[in-house]
């Protein structure tokens, strides 16, 4: 009998359960879909461990955030469930009057909770499985792969985690419902419909002053955020901006209702027209009592919008142009000499570095000089057959630092043709104090040849600036335009333009050639004569067309290096970062290997991780905020049922009441959204100016995606809330 009664109650309360059910459905579907990412590996050909690690790292990160998401969803479901219990207290009181015990009523509520939970879990899991199939294609797009052997993927791990998580949430909800119903007194249940929230009344003049102060605080917070540029998150400007935003937003909602009433009561033509007086008082009553939740909703909306829109843009910051940034099959670098304790700061003067290396690492120096500092010669000697089978062409570039000369004179000259702000000097750290970096023309033309580019030529007494980092490009172009001269070991050289921005010195996660002067070979020979040795050496190689995959050639290259410097050699260790390498990491000939295949795989993994985290967090927070607002509006519609009956009896027609109800829902949803959008516009704009636009990333696409998500989810909840509230009011009018 109790089960049958529970089923009947659910059918009767479909409108009441709509928000609850939709929220559960969204939560289960998204939770399963994003926790099933790791199972998508079988759709792709994982030819190297780097590809597999990409999925594993993403799955682990999403799993960590799922703990937070589960807590958010648990709170949200419990919050939504409170509305249902409160809405039906009179019904429960009727059951007690008819002779049921509190235990019987609790059993009915338990059955209802279990049935709705099971239904939402089943439908949510079905939707989640379908959603995960769609995410497989998104993954393929982010990964840059094709699914030649697509198959339906079901993740047992994600299924079990989702089942366990939501089962635990439903158990807590069921216990809460049982305890809540059993502890209620009959008189409280019967009179529940007569108890409304007391509308807090505040002095309108105090609210007016507080509202103006809140706007001033928010303006100050925006100014501090713009000053910080979202570059250093531990800077005092960012802290002041964060505190100002939180305090200003709280004060805004605390004072909003009183301020609105103070203004509207003086606009008699608006305030006294139709049901505007009733509508304003209804909104003011709710805002005054729920300003804390509106503050929390606004902050979460701001976080959701900003994370989603900027997260999509940050993908391009970290992984944009990865193909261009990796023109070689692999880049091997040698640290050469960092001083006895392995840090650049400990090294002697640039002219004394060779002597210091000879004293502290004589075997490394002897090996380098025996091979004329040629990394390729040392590696080919160690494994000649494997080298010939793997390497088709190579070029080595040596990076030098000029003693007693920094970039300061060049920047001073550049400031005569461009402002510090235009050159983004505030974002470039201690570039003034950095020693001038140079590359020999023959080395530079060597790596250009490997890339298939034409060689460069220098007029006597000139040098070129090479830079392909977008953030540093304004400074490099200003230096080339100013055309200052530099004196390097007696060679007077004028910097001429244009800036060479199409040459990548080594494989990297992004374009990484920065402010390097391309000088005649005799300048570098003069540095050698002064006892200088290279800061770093980079050997760029292109693999032979040997029928092997990129991953197999990567393994062969690692075997070549291991032949030259086996693990048991020891030496300049790189700690846990190189724990999986097959070779010892030395100062020379090889400290590190970066391959194009590895860089592209890592960038795809980072792109996957950032994109899915932005989607996951943005979606959950958006659903949570919209659901909270919906529940509060439905709660107010239920509490205000007697007021709507009075309006009905006074002669107001149903269309006027519905318009008033629509206005309340719109204002309650759109005011926190509007303020959150203001915060987001400031934050995303600052982030775009300081970082995204610096690398040429267009934020229009991510912003449009965020707008669509906001329109679909937030707008959908708004419509469902209005129709559900209208159903509540319609039922109240029918009773009257």
Would you mind describing this structure in some detail?
The protein has 736 residues and is of the alpha+beta class. It folds into three domains: 195 residues, no CATH class; 234 residues, no CATH class; 255 residues, no CATH class. The chain is 64% helix and 8% strand. The chain is built from 26 helices and nine strands. Strands 5-6-4-7-3-2-8-1-9 form a nine-stranded mixed β-sheet, sandwiched between helices. The mean pLDDT is 80.
Strand and helix map with partners:
Layout: H1 2-12, H2 14-35, H3 49-87, H4 89-97, H5 102-143, H6 156-182, H7 186-190, H8 204-228, H9 236-264, H10 268-271, H11 276-289, H12 291-319, H13 322-325, E1 330-334, H14 353-360, H15 362-370, H16 375-382, H17 384-390, E2 391-406, H18 408-414, E3 435-440, H19 441-450, E4 462-466, H20 473-482, E5 485-488, E6 491-500, E7 516-519, H21 521-529, E8 536-543, H22 550-564, E9 592-595, H23 596-639, H24 641-649, H25 654-692, H26 700-735
Parallel strand pairs: 3-7, 4-6
Antiparallel strand pairs: 1-8, 1-9, 2-3, 2-8, 4-7, 5-6
Helix pairs in contact: 1-5, 2-3, 2-5, 2-6, 2-23, 2-26, 3-6, 3-23, 5-6, 8-9, 9-11, 9-12, 11-25, 12-23, 12-25, 12-26, 14-15, 16-17, 16-22, 18-20, 23-25, 23-26, 24-26, 25-26
